Amino acid sequence: MLFDMNTDPTAKQKLLGRANNFAHCQACGYEGLISTPIVYHDPNKELLLTYFPGELGFPLNEQEKQIGPLVNQVVNALPAEKRKGYLFQPNSMFTYQSLIDRILAADGITKEMIEAQQKRVNLIERLLSLPNEEDRVTVVRQEANLVDGETFTLLSTLIQSASAQGDEASAKLLSQIQAVLLNETDFGKKLLADSQETQHALKELDKAGKEGLTREKLLEVLSSLKSETSLTTLVSLTRSGLDYQFFQILSEKIEQSTDENKQALISLRDKLLDLTRKIDNEVKKRLENAASLLENILKEADVQAAIEKHAEEIDEFFTQAVQVEFEKAHSENNLERMEKIQKVVSILDKMTAPPPEVVLIQKLLDASDDETRKKILQENETLVNDQLLQTINAIITESSTKSQAPELIDTLKSIYKMALRAHMEKNLKS
């Protein structure tokens, strides 16, 4: 079985998720890995790994006969200029777990990190099994050393997943566990304090924004922050305001300040300069990577296939690179390049366009009354199907979990009833 990141960007996800090499017997309920040879290839990390299950009992020469064609597939799928030495020296993994560990290690994920994550998962599972908050508090205090940023990230992911699936009971229980971790551990208390400070600062900025946010007010808000986390968050959100004039105002304040306050302002200036420098360097790096990706896509004969292959890498920086390169080509009157870039824009527009059922739901929400909505449903009869009903239902569920306006939820429920009726009438006609 071949997992080649060169031809399938989801290959690693499939292997790690056991989507292709895991068997489930409907008759007896048996579940387990399929004993089959595996070749894994990641050209970006120059990784070519092979695994041959020992339980198959094949001699070495027979193993090579079965693995060889898969390796040849990897090599043949690459253009000649990208065939490097690592392709002719594949690394043999003796166990399936060592194969997985090697792939994760290439991503910077060590065995120790995996074990630490498993301990966090075990802690959350244990807390979920406890009947009351008092028992949870006791366990959390005993296992406080396991609570860190990764623990809260994991919890947030689980809460979002439960909410998305409409499992309100699990989402509520996980939120209660999150509250215990925030209130009963040193890390949680600091995280909570940082969050509260950040939220307060954001409210101050929002209030000032309505009145006309000035650089002086921005400096006042940033000066009040005690947490490094809050400062980093606010700087990332207000980077455009931290310009030459802002730092000039800060320097003037330093000159006018007393010794104690002067040192605090100097320290703040150093931190702000460092943070803005890091942000600018990261933006520059991502823009350069986006421009490089665009060039690679433009070189391909099949532009759409190239875009689909790199879909996960396309973000706002790529969009910005497209705009910059189009304007540059326009200024140089390079019509051929303008046409190529315009083709990229057209493909991206199609790929990012919302599904037709979502567009229809928005039209229904924008409609002034039920009669207009019924008319819209009649005009879009082909879209009135199970997919539309499922989408409306999913939006209602999500809106309810995020405490959206009751009026919106009521309107969505009314639209669902109308769409359901229209769908049933269409089925009766057919």
Report on this model:
- This protein has 430 residues and is mainly α.
- The chain has five domains: 2-106, no CATH class; 111-184; 199-272, no CATH class; 284-352, no CATH class; 356-429, no CATH class.
- Helix content is 69%, strand content 5%.
- It contains 19 helices and six strands.
- The strands form two sheets. It has a four-stranded mixed sheet with strand order 1-4-5-6, sandwiched between helices.
- β5, α2 (60-76) and β6 (91-93) form a beta-alpha-beta unit.
- α7 (168-184) crosses α8 and α17 crosses α19 (406-429).
- It is globular and about 80 Å long.
Helix proportion: 55-70%
Principal-axes geometry comes out as globular
The residue-averaged pLDDT reads 87
| Major sheet: arrangement of strands | 1-4-5-6
* Count of structural domains: 5
N-to-C SSE string, H for helix and E for strand: EHEEEEHEHHHHHHHHHHHHHHHHH
Percent strand: 5-15%
Structural class: mainly alpha
**Poorly predicted residue ranges:** none
What would the keywords be for this entry?
69% helix; 5 domains; mainly alpha; globular; 430 residues; 19 helices
Gist of the model:
The chain is mainly alpha-helical and 430 residues long. It contains 19 helices and 6 strands.
Draw up the topology in text.
Layout: E1 2-4, H1 11-16, E2 22-24, E3 31-33, E4 38-42, E5 47-51, H2 60-76, E6 91-93, H3 96-106, H4 111-129, H5 133-142, H6 149-164, H7 168-184, H8 186-211, H9 215-223, H10 228-237, H11 244-256, H12 259-299, H13 303-309, H14 316-331, H15 335-352, H16 356-366, H17 370-379, H18 386-401, H19 406-429
Parallel strand pairs: 1-4, 5-6
Antiparallel strand pairs: 2-3, 4-5
Helix pairs in contact: 4-6, 5-7, 6-7, 7-8, 8-9, 8-10, 10-12, 11-12, 12-14, 14-15, 16-17, 17-19, 18-19
